[in-house]
Amino acid sequence: MGMEELKRRLGQVSDLYAAAGLMSWDQETQMPGEAARVRGLQMATLAGLAHELFTDARTAELLAAAGEGQGETDAAIVRVTRREHDKATRLPTAFVEEATRARNEAHHAWLEARKRSDFATFAPHLEKMMDLARREADLLGYEEHPYDALLDQYEPGMRAAQVQPVFADLRDRTLPLLRRIVAAGDAADYSVLTRPFAPEAQKAFAWRVAGEAFGLRSTFARQDESAHPFQTNFSRSDLRITTRVEDYWPACLFGTWHETGHAMYERGVAPHWERTPVSRGASLGVHESQSRMFENLLARSRPFWERYFPQLAEVASEVTAGLDPEALYRAVNRVHPSLIRVEADEITYNFHIMLRFELELALLEGRLKVQDLPEAWNAKMQEYLGLTPPDDAQGVLQDIHWSSGLIGYFPTYTLGNLLSVQLLEAAKQDPSIAAGIKQADYAPLLAWLAQNVHQYGRSLTPTQLTQQATGQGLTADPYIAYLHQKYGEIYGLEAEG
Amino acid sequence: MGMEELKRRLGQVSDLYAAAGLMSWDQETQMPGEAARVRGLQMATLAGLAHELFTDARTAELLAAAGEGQGETDAAIVRVTRREHDKATRLPTAFVEEATRARNEAHHAWLEARKRSDFATFAPHLEKMMDLARREADLLGYEEHPYDALLDQYEPGMRAAQVQPVFADLRDRTLPLLRRIVAAGDAADYSVLTRPFAPEAQKAFAWRVAGEAFGLRSTFARQDESAHPFQTNFSRSDLRITTRVEDYWPACLFGTWHETGHAMYERGVAPHWERTPVSRGASLGVHESQSRMFENLLARSRPFWERYFPQLAEVASEVTAGLDPEALYRAVNRVHPSLIRVEADEITYNFHIMLRFELELALLEGRLKVQDLPEAWNAKMQEYLGLTPPDDAQGVLQDIHWSSGLIGYFPTYTLGNLLSVQLLEAAKQDPSIAAGIKQADYAPLLAWLAQNVHQYGRSLTPTQLTQQATGQGLTADPYIAYLHQKYGEIYGLEAEG
C-alpha cells in the first residue's frame, strides 16, 4: 500500500518535471518571444512544486517504510529514489534559492562578458560560483575530494581521482598522434563541408537517416530547430530532438544523429519504470556514450557513407558533385586544432575537456585564482593544441557551464567518448553485430544496446553498467586504439610502437 | 502580507493550469501519437494538483482574511477568486472523480456511436451525463432552476428564464426571414468557395490578415494546424490559435479570424491581473461575441472584401479569377439550411443552438426521455430548418459537448452572436469607429474593445459588462436588425413591417 502511494507521488513529481520540460522545449522551439518573462515564472513554479513534493515529509515516511522494495522493479525504484531524495534534502531551501539567484545573475553577466570579451565583468560571478560549489560539496558530503560531490551529481559514483589517471593516459597517448596528424596536413578537400545544401533538405535528410539507420520514428519522436541543439523527452514515447542549420552542413547532420543517440537511450528504458526516477539514463557519461557512438563511431564511419552517399546525392547533388563516398568520409573526419570545443573533432575534443577539468579542479581547490584563469586557459591551449585565443570570448568565456554553476560536468563528455568505443568493441564480439556495422546495418547493434545499456535506466550505476556490459571497468585503451587506427589510416601515418 | 501569499498561491495555480494548457495544445498540434497515454496521466496530475492547491484549507484561510481587498485590482482578485473557490469547493472530490471517469467513458462511447451512427450505444452514457448534471446542479446550488447552476459555470449570472424569451424573440423574428431567403434562392456562385487554394497559402493569408486587420502578431501569438480549431493561451503574451485546412477554403480563413477574436480578448486583459483568476474573459458568451464579431461582422462585410480582395488575388488567383469583391462578399454570405452546426451560416446557426438548448432543458427536467431524443431532435430540425438528418451521426450525435458533460454550454454561442452586434452598434456611436469600419480599418474599433471589453477580464460579470459598454442589458434587437438589413439586401428582399 505504501509502495503504491510512493509510486503515485513519484508519478506526480515526474509529471511536474515533464511539464517543466515541455515548457522549456516550447520556449526554445515554438514560443513567441514576448512570452519569456511569464514563462520563466511558470517554469520556476513547476520546478519548485516538484522539488517540494519530492522532498516533503510524506515522501521521507514512504521511503522509510518501503524497506528494500519487493521484487527487482520496486527495489530499483526505492534504491534510486532514496539516493536522489537523500541528495535533494541535503541542500537547504535557503541555499538553493541563493544559488538559483546567483546563477541567474552569473549567467546574465556571462552573456554580457562574452559579448564584449571582457573577463573582468564575469570574474566576481565566477568567484561566487566557486564559493557556492565548495559549499554545495560540503552540504552533499564526500570522502576524498569536494570535486567528487559535484561530479557525482552527473556521474554517480565517479571520483576525480579516477578521472585523473584515465585522462592522463589519454593525453599522453593521443597528443603525439595529434602532432603527427597536424604535421601530415590535409587528407581531403574540406571545402565540400560548406557547399550549398538547402536548410529544409539538410533537416529532412538528417531526420530520415535518424529513422532508417538508428530507429528514431515520428510515431514517438519529433525534430525541431533551436539555437542550441538538445534532446529532451516527456516519456519514452515522446522524444524531442532539435537541430541547428548552418552553412557548415555537418552541424545539422551529425548534430541530429548525436541527439538521436540520446533519444534512443531514453526510448529504450524499460517501460515498468515509467514516471519514476529510474526512468532516465544512468549518467551524463553513459548518455554521451550513446550520442557519440551514433554521431562519430557510426555516422563518421566509412561503411555509413558507402551506404548513405547515394541518398545524400539525391537530395544534395551540389554537395556530392565530383565526390565519391571515400572523399566524403575523409572530409567529415578532418582533424584540426581549433579554439572552440563544440566545433572540435574526435581527437582534439578531449583536450578541450581535459583543460577545463584541470582548471576547474584547481579553482575549486584554490590553487588557481579566478583572476589568473584566462592566462592559465591560454597557456593550456598552447600546450595542448598549439593555439592562443585572440580574445577571451574565444577562450575562457566560450562555454555556458561555469556561468550556470555546472562545476564537475565537463569530464562526462570525455568519459562518454571513452565509453562509446568500449561499448562498441564489446558489442562487436557478436559476429552478426560486427557484420552489420560493416554494412551500416545497425539493427543488431541497436538490439544489443537496448539489452545491455538502455533498458536499465538508472537502476545500475555507470560503473555497474560498464562492468556488466563490457566485462571491465572504464578504460581509455579501446578509445585510444580506435583513434590511432582510424586517423593513422586516414592521414597515412605509419604505426608507432 | 496575507494578500501577497494569496497572490503567490494564485500564481502557482495559474502556472499549473498554464502547463496543463500547454500540454493540451502540444497534444493537438505537435505531440507524437504514441505519447497520448502518458500525456493523459500528466495532464490529470497537473489539473489535480491545481485543483488541490486552489481548494485547500490555506487558500480558504487567506481568502477569509483578505476581506474586500485593498484597491480595485486586489478587490477584483478577491471577489473573483472567492466566487470560483466557492464553486470549486462545493463539488466533493468523490463526485469530481466519478464525473471525470464517467465523462471519459461517455466520450469514448460517443466517438464509437458517432462512427457507427448508433445512438443506442451512447444513450446510457447520456443518461449518466444527465444524472451527473442534476447532481452537480444540486451541489452547486441555484434559486430558480437546476439549469441555472450549470449555465452559470460558463455564463456567470445568466439564467434559463432570461435566455428563453430572448431566444423566442430571435426565433420568431428570424424564422420568417430565413424562409424568404430560402424561397429567393442563390444570390451568388458558391462554387468559388471550393476553388483550388494551396493549404500553405490559405494559412499564410489568414494569418497575415489576422495581423494586419485585427492586430494579432507573431511576437506574442502563433498559428498551428489541428483537427478542430481552437484558441488557448498561457499568458497574455503567449496566445495560440489553430486552424484546419479544407477544400472549402473559408473554413481556414474565417476560422482563423474567429480564433483571432478569442485571442485578442485575452491579449487585452489588464496586465495587473496576470496569473490570477481575473485574467480571463468574462464568460463564454462575451468571448464568443469577440470571435463572431471578427469572423462575421467584420470579415464577412463588404468593406472587408473591398480592402482584402486584391491581397487574396495575389496569393490565390485561381480563387478570384473572374470575380470582383462584391461577388466574393456574396459568396461568403450564403444562407443555406444544413444539418451540421459548425458549418452553419449566420442565420441558421442560432436555430441549431435553440434546438440544443430546448432539448437539453427538457432532458434535465425529465420532460424528455433520452430514448426519445433522436426523434425530438429530428422533429425540431424539420420545424426550424426543414431538414431531416439521414442518420444520427449527422443529427443528435454530431456534437462533442454532451458526451463531455457540457450541459448548459450551448446557449453561450448564440448569446455571443447577439452581444457581438450589440457591442458593435455601441462602438459605432463613435464616428471615427464607424468611419474606420467602412474602410476595413479596425484600429479605432480595436481600441474601443480593449477599453470597454477586454481590459476588464473577469472583474465584471457579463451583465455588468454589457450594461456598462452598451448602456443596456442583453437584447436580441440589434442582432435581428443586422440580419434583416444584411441578408435582405443580399437576397433582394423587400423590407417587411
TrEMBL record, chains A, B:
Catalytic activity, EC: 3.4.17.19
GO molecular function, one term: carboxypeptidase activity
PROSITE patterns to which the protein is assigned, alphabetical: PEPTIDASE_M32 (PS52034)
Enzyme class: hydrolase
Annotated Pfam families: Peptidase_M32
Catalytic function, reaction form: Release of a C-terminal amino acid with broad specificity, except for -Pro
Function field: Broad specificity carboxypetidase that releases amino acids sequentially from the C-terminus, including neutral, aromatic, polar and basic residues.
Record-stated family: Belongs to the peptidase M32 family.
Name listed for the protein in its UniProt record: Metal-dependent carboxypeptidase
Organism taxonomic ancestry: Bacteria, Thermotogati, Deinococcota, Deinococci, Deinococcales
